[in-house]
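Troubleshooting entry. Yesterday's outputs looked truncated, so today I'm pasting the complete records for two proteins to confirm everything comes through intact. If either block looks cut off, that's the bug. Protein one:
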Amino acid sequence: GHEDFRPRIVPYYRDPSKPYKKVLRTRYIQTELGFHERLFVAVLTSKATLNTLAVAVNKTVAHHFPRLLYFTGLRSAKVPHGMMLVAHGDERPIWLMYETMHYIHQHFGSDYDWFYIMQDDTYAQAEQVKALVMHLSINQDVYLGRAEEFIGGDEQARYCHGGFGYLISRSLLLKLHPHLDSCRNEILSVRPDEWLGRCIIDFLGIACVSQLQGQHYHTYELAKNTEPEKEEEEEFQAALAVHPVSDMTLMYRLHKRFIRISMRSLFAQMQIRNLTSLTPAGEAGLTWPVGINAPFLPKSRFEVISWDYFTEQHLFSCPDGSPKCELSGASKADVSEIIESALEQLNSRYQPLLRFSKRQLLNGYRRFDPTRGMEYTLDLLLEAVTQKGHAHVLAKRVSLVRPLSKVEIIPMPYVTEATRVQLVLPLTVQDVDFVANFLDMFAMNTLDTHDNALLTLLFIYHPYDAQRVSQVDVFAGVKAMVGELEKRYAEVKIPWISVKTEVPSQVKLMDIVSKKHPVDTLFFLASVWTEINMEFRNRCRMNTISNWQVFFPVHFQEFNPALVYRGEQTASSSTDFLRDGHFDRYSFAEACFYNSDYMTARTKLAADILDRDEVLESMEVFDVFLHYSGLHLFRAVEPGLVQKYALRSCNPRLSEELYHRCVLSNLEGLASRSHLAMALFEQEQANST
């Protein structure tokens, strides 16, 4: 027993008389050595809860488990995004359990050591479940969960309650699989967890246990109308699984509560503090809060993230650019929650010696740091009350961070750059002077490059001009230019549509164009000042997805060269992005969308407004998609879509909002503040002399 074993090198020897056989090696040594993944999780769901509770499970704990699948009895169920679903096609509970166990054995029985089965009305603490299996031996047949007695059965026999989840070892699954068919035919039960428990007991003689190898499976049963935020019991805080969870909101509240409980633990923070002293930066490199990324360090003054000032009533950095606006909506809820959190942290730190209550928010500052989240600095006027009842008013500054959650990749349908783009160009009399430049750019960037794109012109006649069209056609010059273009490119045809109206509503014009094209047409609604290139057309194709997403680019608008350059030489290159200008967020003239999506949204709009066509004069295509479609609206700045400066003609017959946006677009497109200030300064200098 005390013999000293020493390693001995055995030299390789191949018998020359035997044929050589090539040894096939696996790609990974883990496979060759027979190692298995640790934990597989199966979630049982149903038709009523697939899009509610199952989605809540997926958003709260699913990403904490290494592998998780959802099982349902639905046939050809529509799978919510980001979820992997196995549909068995039979909604009977016992059949669902039988098919699930058979599927797990067939597809994952040889890959995982542990199998955790739960329902979608169960909240499981993923990290504690993973910690539990790390402390259990894989050599035993384990059936671990909340042990329950069979109704009218043997007192010694127990099954694991399905509502609280249960853990099955790989060895138990392998032994159970040959008996699943017999259990399905011989055991009668209403509850699937009872059926599985009886199957394991009858054929393997193993009952459910709540404690094994020194590890406890803690559970907590939620009472009706439970407030998770107020639960302070040790049984609740130690629970691996909580049941029953009645709705999505309660699932999210439980998740938030358990996260706060886990954050109270200083163990992880102490580990970080101890390890920090061993790093090159030492303790000076320790950031606050511990475990959160360090603040962003700007490399120049242009990268400094500014703070936004707020009070409990007003915000002094408004989305519309005004210096002061009322605090409302999500911003108001954000401020209220952060003040409440600050008081909670202060009371948890100083109680029972002191108890704080808020008198007033003196000053509030917040900024969004893309490396860590939203940062807050609050100056609070507090009333501190001692244990003896003495009160004292004091001002206290606190700092808080709302860290960024885990980044989620949203699955998107696959699209290609081969789709044909149908350009639609509405033209009024005021636009005639700019058509020549548009057609030249279209010929150079589209026709010369043989890009898969077509052009349709929409001539908008005023009723007076329409009556005189046989004598004087205001668009005669444009039609002549189109004719020259068709002669130069024999294979190209540029059709046009003539419309008579006093109010050129974008929606009414699009209705006419939509009826003349197939439903699978990809439209690009352009304006006459737009310089269209292949780079943007490809982004139009990639960012527009049928029955999923529409694209409304924010074009780059050049400033008035008379104000910007003031007689100096202008930029020579028309493709130079460094020209002075800005992204015009007031303009929704450009859009990329599929005809089928527009027709679907337009049908819903027609049912809503009935015969009130005057409503269409106050709407744009953007409003149609925003209010009457469930599609994603992708609105982003587009550096490849550049417009030269031109003073737009704002039609006063349109709605007040559309007219106001047009005026603001003209005003902000004049020049930047520095250019305007310089122009005013030069004008004052000229007047003074």
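Protein two, checking that the full record survives here as well:
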Amino acid sequence: LEQMQQGTLMRKVKSKSWKKQRYFKLQDDCMTIWYQSKRMGKIESAFSISDVETVREGHQSEVLQSLAEEFPPERCFTIVFYGRRGNLDLIASSAEEAQCWVQGLRQLIEVATSMDQREKIDQYPFSDKNKDGRMNFKEVQRLLKMMNVDMNEDHALRLFQAADKSESGTLEGEEFVLFYKALTQREEVLSLFQDFSEDGKKLTLLELVDFLRQEQLEDEGTEELAMELIDKYEPSETGESQPGHRLADGFLMYLCSPEGSIFNPRHRALWQDMNQPLCHYFISSSHNTYLIEDQIRGQSSIEGYIRALKRGCRCLEVDCWDGPNGEPMVYHGHTFTSKIPFREVVSTLGKYAFKTSDYPVILSLENHCSMEQQEVLAQQLKAILGEQLLTATTDGHVPTQLPSPEELKHKILVKGKKIGRLEDTLDGPGDEAPEVSDDDNGAEAEEERRRVKVGERRSSGAVSWVLALVVNSTWCGWLCWPGNDPTSGPHAPSLGNEFVRHNAWQLTRIYPSGMRTDSSNYSPQEMWNVGCQIGWFSLPSRARSPSCPEPFPKKALNFQTAGTEMDLCDGLFSQNGRCGYVLKPPFMRDEETVFNPSDPGSWEGPGPITLTIQVISGQQLPKVANSKDGAVIDPLVRVEIHGVPADQAHQETKYIENNGFNPRWDETLQFQLHVPELALVRFVV
């Protein structure tokens, strides 16, 4: 860290031809890194450690891979950011310098992500730069940034001056505690605190247990949980001197922590039965995974696969076409999108497939290659993936039902199209039909079909690998259907119970219409309502501002970008350990079910329930993008229910005029839910 604070000259790389030296330096707060041009001498950019997701060593980006012959991997590394910010590819002068930054950044990321609020407050001495036991206003500002408190400088200064009882221009000891309490004081939380506190000043262990049971709906191990929360979130020495008590500031810290989330903490871990057939799960999926911009001129990148896999995505798409020098390429055919070698995609898949989830990955292979390059595809898949690649049924016999995620752990399945029965595949090679992309339109698809009609067959070498790798297409019995495309056939909800029953024993893939050239997504909820397992999303990186009006503009999305469709996908798959598989409700797993999402009253469900949500307050809300200097927002909260048609609803609070710092709504909203098992709640500020 000391070496990083002294600064290092490294190459910032954007392409094979754009390699420029920049001076990188870790600031004294150990939370900010800035870099400047060597030639101009001015700061070019800066970023916070809290914005960094991970650091990758070696040639782990397309740019650094293209420079592999010029720079050894031990000098190269990539800084990966959360959200829409592009990765930062760097080349150090030596392997030692590269390791210094790689290890230093990883240490800082671990500290930033693991510190709880109490530990952040304990950084007070650390922020005392001149070690005199006092903190001036600049040192306090540095600490606020470290604690992720972004506030108006004038307001912070007023609070600072009010806490400076000695009028020395600095804070020490209890003065800083006063400043912090004034900074985070929330009357609405204090009111809730006093509802459960007999003396209005502290919560005893039993009073905290009452709160957890009545308000947080905790029912098991509540006393143990209460003690853990007091130990973790009580920052006051006064609170510590009364073991088993909690003060209001610790109570606030708990409410704003992950433990205080409305999301059931037990569902963040893997908690569902993973031994049921694949068709009994909703499966996290992506469409045109390689694209990170639009479908016509966008960039193709292995980064699309890395981001999708790290978010738990279990179904990926690869469009394969003939490339130069006998090397198959991945891109969106008959467009101006850029190209990436198939070999790189498979290598990325082999490396990242099971970092986030142990459960199977389905590779949707859209094969447009010639006979010769198909054989290259096969060789690369087998050589790179090895034992990860599933090439036969789990026991070598024709199954009576689909295998489970548990049976297919750490396996990669190839989805394609083929002619013939599964029995023929297991017995030996047979005839093979050319692949036609599910979302191909026009002359391209017609040419593929014409080749089948005239009897053009691939060589036996290609046949053997296709039959081996695509064994699971017949096995799974896929139904592929363009979503929300009125020209493609009957609308999914109109099939109702019939479609729900089909999806109780077979897999269905829904994909965006080929006419959606802007990479926009369809709403997945109506597909989930009829039990469709796989809804394919476009995941490009260009996206709207979070302040863009709803419901959802036709812009491209990625996994980190705000937007209704991806919010629903994130919401559904945030449970069960983010493993990419979510077990469908029991009434959607029964082949004889009478459930019809368009008529919830047609089945013997538990009946409507009432969902009550109290919207209390917010704090430090961001300004609307592109707003004028000095503008102040008027925030409101919209609560949306996404589910079966009878449950679709939304309600809004009133807006609070000119207050983005600590708006308070105190409004109660109620919803009637007929099928709560399929309902998602979305909060929009």
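Both blocks look complete. Sanity check on protein two: The first helix runs from residue 2 to 6.
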